[in-house]
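Archive entry: two folds, one per protein. Generate the first.
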Amino acid sequence: MLDRVLPDPRRGHPVALFGAAAAALERRVYAPKRARGAVFALLAVAPAAALGALAEHGAGPRREAAVTAAATWAVLGGSMLRREAALMADALEAGDLDAARRRLPHLCGRDPDGLDAKDLARATVESVAENTSDAVVAPLLWGALLGVPGLLGYRAINTLDAMVGHRSERYERFGWAGARLDDVANWAPARLTALLTAAAAPVVGGGVARAWRTRRAYGHRHPSPNSGQCEAAFAGALGLRLGGTNVYGQRVEHRPELGDGRPPEVGDIRRAIRLAGAVDTAAAVTAALLALALSRRFGRDRG
């Protein structure tokens, strides 16, 4: 609820502060070696999870609820993701390609130069699909399982992947541990996202069965073991075909197509936003029920 009504601050956001601290740590420990990258990941993630455990330790019910609410707000990014996608839709619907290209870096790392309206629409829909898992479902799931340490630890892992997990000359070896850790942390959340996406498909006029079939048929084709699950499920729910050639600076990736529908158009951005909102709500309910079930189970065990 806080994520939906309380916008992220322009300065001093906890995730941004963590990123600055991690960047400072990287400057001190960097070497083009996997072992050094593994040490970096450990030194960055462990304190975040430990801070969460310390905040929970010995807290009464009211304080624990307040700490959990604050941590959950800090790590969730669903509302911001949907707002950025809506701003992209506004620019494209107004025919302002220059403004739309300027907005794209807020959603993904692709080079916006030369992209037309349909290319920008595809990039936006794919970003909404992938980040619905990373920014909402995954932190909620880990929070339900592990409490505040799960919330903060997951966000630290995901932030590190965004910083050093991409393939470049600098991070090919140093970022390997961070990228693999992110793959492990997102394996279950990505599949839960696909399941919730299929269940929510009727919200955008899609079919549950088609979305799930598309996930099963195409999800494994993506170079990421997790992103493809989410993008394929969104493609099936929206009746679209995602994937294709992406340009990241000097690097060009030719990704397999996901889905058997038509290519995305500008109007599909609003549909993707509605679908993501439905998935976010379903994920919150799922996480709350899971946390309640675990609380009752452990309560009985202590009794």
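Generate the second and append.
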Amino acid sequence: MRRRWTTLLLVVTLVATAALAGCGGKSEKTTLKVGEVTRSLFYAPQYVALEKGFFADEGLNIELTTTAGGDKTMTALLSGVIDVALVGSETSIYVYQQGAEDPVINFAQLTQTDGTFLVARQPEPTFDWQSLKGKTFLGQRKGGMPQMAGEFTLKKFGIDPQKDLELIQNVDFANISAAYASGTGDFVQLFEPTASIFEKEGRGKVVASFGAESGHLPYTVYMAKQSFTNKNKAALQSFTNAIHRAQLWVAENSAETIADVVLPYFENVDRGILISSIDRYKQQGSFAADPIIDQEEWNNLLDVMTSAGELKARTEHDAIVNTAFAEAAIEAVK
């Protein structure tokens, strides 16, 4: 009898231990190190996913860092400092065309237009793109998506960036706004909320949108190395699910509501600036409606890069784009 009770106690103990282990497993979260190319309201859905707990709901712990510039972001990704990069798709094309053995794969789109605005020193109620001719234009880094989309837009209006204006491209991404504020350039290309801050401070006036003029393209995308993608499919699927939940939430809510959620990421920015910046992006459809990087957008990206003279050969969509995660997220998140 005593032996029977000992056996029963052992079985009960094993069952309880297994149950506790199972509960512990469910509470454990997978950590993903994410690097964003800059801190901008352009990425509002990402901050919504963090603040609303969408990543946590998917069993993820996100360690977010700002890596300040496409080249630095890609270096961090390739070296393993981060697992996932939020950066322009052009960076993955550069890596692929260098013959990388472990290419970078685009798996979820966050923004679908250029996010920069043309800022002039003085208001121009009847702005004409031709007014840039003969002026000094403080642009973005050569080969980066903001600069290429900017040049694409200028050419659309018959302006040769290399001949018709003085183009400055040697200012580091993080220092462009400071350079303009100190007096460099007649026009500058800025993201939000910096553009709106400059307006409020009387340093300049938004006169046009590069996003509205350059069309839809995979402007800012989540990407990871092929090797990481193959080994972490469940985590990347959970990540994409959370991003799509945030995209739907942003689409359904007002700029005011969104601003209140993302405020912790822009503590030094006036709430009114946050609202106007988010509204600008919503009005021009900058936030992607879903995470899919489609063929048409990809082709537009290749056209923009070709126009800028930065493309050795057209990189096929299927070569470094994986839409499986996005397609599954759309099915999973209703």
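Annotation attached to the second fold: Confidence is low (pLDDT under 50) at residues 1-26. The chain is about 50% helix and 15% strand.
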